[in-house]
Structure formats: structure tokens, C-alpha cells
Amino acid sequence: MGTSIVVTSGKGGTGKSTFTVGVASCLAAMGKRVLCIDMDMGLRNLDLMLDLSDRALMDVTDVLEGRCSLERAVTGHHMIHSLFLLPAPVTRPAEEIDQERMRALVALAKEQFDFVFLDCPAGIGSGFRLATCAADRAILVCTTDPVSLRAAESAVQLLRRTGKPIHLAVNRITRSFLKITRTTIDDAMDALALPLIGIIPDDPKVTLAASKGQPVITCSDRGAARAFYNIANRLLGRQIPPMKI
Ligand SMILES: Nc1ncnc2c1ncn2[C@@H]1O[C@H](COP(=O)(O)OP(=O)(O)O)[C@@H](O)[C@H]1O
Ligand SMILES: [Mg+2]
Questions:
Q1: What number does the ligand 1 atom closest to the CA of 173 have?
Q2: Cα(33)–Cα(74) distance, rounded to whole angstroms?
Q3: CA 225 to CA 244: how far, in whole Å?
Q4: Separation CA 33–CA 106 (nearest Å)
Q5: Is the pTM of this model over 0.85?
Q6: How far is the CA of 18 from the centre of ligand 1 (A)?
Q7: Ligand 1 pocket at CB < 6 A
Q8: In angstroms, rounded to a whole number, what is the distance separating the alpha carbons of residues 121 and 126?
């Protein structure tokens, strides 16, 4: 039985989708069967980030409403063979989707995959609740800026009520930014009172890889790619020392 992980933040642009693709591709490259479910209804982008727009024709609602089986709706990545995608619908609002059905879909996916990632939309409204309802655990992706931390606090408050384990990933770290603003990763952890699963450096290869529709590990083994490997290993229960920025 696999594990379902919601990747969330409270705010847009902190790197949730980047994190989802980054960590999911590492786990798949290590031989795990991994499914990414894009939960950003109406603003989906994992199909672009994985270069699967032309092939991934079915979406979450096709499975939820019985038009297609899960096995037929998922699309495999052309380079990383045990990485699969189930896209979000283009137009359907999250409020119209039933949480019970979503839980059943994820339960079924956990029978077929080792990891199921739910890539959350921005905000803490209905899309957040739908993405969160079926997850076993949550990873909150934030940056070190105060706006991101405040939005993360609101998401943490809601997540705590669910009793799910929550970990923090701090993204887009640069040494110079930390120095100028005197923020530290400890500050982010203290502000949110969450255990850290990893830090990800700001890395131009991330944007470059995304624009080509490739996971960053296909074009780098340092920087963000290394950080995603570290986090994937920690999810597999391995002890990996903290990354130096
Ligand atoms: N570690 C990073 N280094 C450089 N750019 C990043 C990093 N993480 C995310 N980005 C960039 O930030 C933007 C927002 O990332 P995205 O994953 O789409 O955020 P979200 O899903 O939270 O809205 C994208 O252009 C992405 O390429
Ligand atoms: Mg996103």
C-alpha cells in the first residue's frame, strides 16, 4: 500500500509544482511507482512541466465520474518510466468535486503506486480542502519571505486540525538572500513549528528544465536536483545529512 502526500503552501508561486515534479521524479528514478495528481483545477500545469499535454487526455474528473478507469487515465512519462500523471480538469471548479469520491480515487491509486503526490492549488479554499482530504501526510513548501510564511501559517492551522503529519520544505534559498535579510531556515521552522524535510536552493536549472518539460534531474545532479534526491531519500526513511547552500 502506497503513501499519499499533499504538497501545499497557502500561497502561489512558492514552488509546489516544482517540488512535486522534482521529488516524484527522483522517487521514480529510484524504482518506485509514482503518481502525480494535479489538483490545481482550472490552472493545471504538471502536464506542461512533464511534457505530457499531448498524451494526457483524461483528467481527475474522468476517473471520479466513472468515464475512465484509473489505469487508463494515467499517462506515463517518456523518460522516467515509473512516473505517471493524472491531470486536473481544465474548467471544473473544486467545489463541484465530491471529497468522498476523491478519497476513494486516492485509496485505489495507493493500491497501484508506491507514492501518490497531490499538487495543491494556491490558497486555502475548496481546492486546498479537496487536495488535502485524501492525503496521509502533508509537505508545506514555503520560501523564507514573510508573505510566504504568513500564508503558510494559515495552511498549517488548517492542516493541524486534520491530525496528518506535516513537514516543511524551504525552497529557493540563496546564501546572499539569507545574509541580507538575516533570515535563517531555523526562523522559518520556528515560525511554523514544523520539522524540516529539506531545503532547496534557488537554481536556474529549475526554470530551464520546466520550460523544456523535463524534470530537473534529467539535466542536473547538483543544486535543486540534489536537494530533491535528498528529500526523496528521506521519504524512504533514509538518514541524509542537511544540504549546504
Ligand atoms: N528552487 C527553485 N529555483 C529556481 N526557480 C524555482 C525554484 N522553485 C520554483 N521555481 C520557479 O518559481 C516559479 C513558481 O514555481 P511553481 O512550482 O509553479 O510554484 P507553485 O506551484 O507553488 O505555484 C516557476 O517559474 C518555477 O520555475
Ligand atoms: Mg502549482
A1: 1
A2: 12
A3: 14
A4: 14
A5: yes
A6: 5
A7: 9, 12-18, 122, 171-172, 200, 202-203, 206-207, 210, 224
A8: 10
Please state the atom number of ligand 1 nearest to the C-alpha of residue 11.
Answer: 22
Q: How far is the CA of 15 from the centre of ligand 1 (A)?
A: 4
Closest ligand 1 atom number to CA of residue 207: 27
Domain boundary assignment for the chain: 3-235
Q: Measured between alpha carbons, how far is 179 from 173 in angstroms, rounded to an integer?
A: 11
pLDDT (tens digit per residue) in 84-98: 999 998 888 888 888
Distance between Cα 20 and ligand 1 center (Å): 11
Cα separation, 234 vs 141, in Å, equals 16
Looking at residue 90, what DSSP letter applies?
A: S
Residue 158 half-sphere exposure, CB side, CA atoms within 13 Å? 19
What local confidence, expressed as pLDDT, does residue 171 receive?
95
Which of 3.40.50.300, 1.10.490.10, 3.30.70.920, 1.10.8.420 would CATH assign to domain 3-235?
Answer: 3.40.50.300
Residue of 206, 214, 216, 231 with the most ligand 1 atoms within 8 Å of its CB, for mutation? 206
Question: From ligand 2's centre to the CA of 240, what distance in Å?
Answer: 27
Kindly report, residue by residue over 117-173, the tens digit of the pLDDT. 999 999 899 999 999 999 999 999 999 888 888 888 999 999 999 999 999 999 999
Give the number of other Cβ atoms within 10 Å of residue 162's Cβ. 13
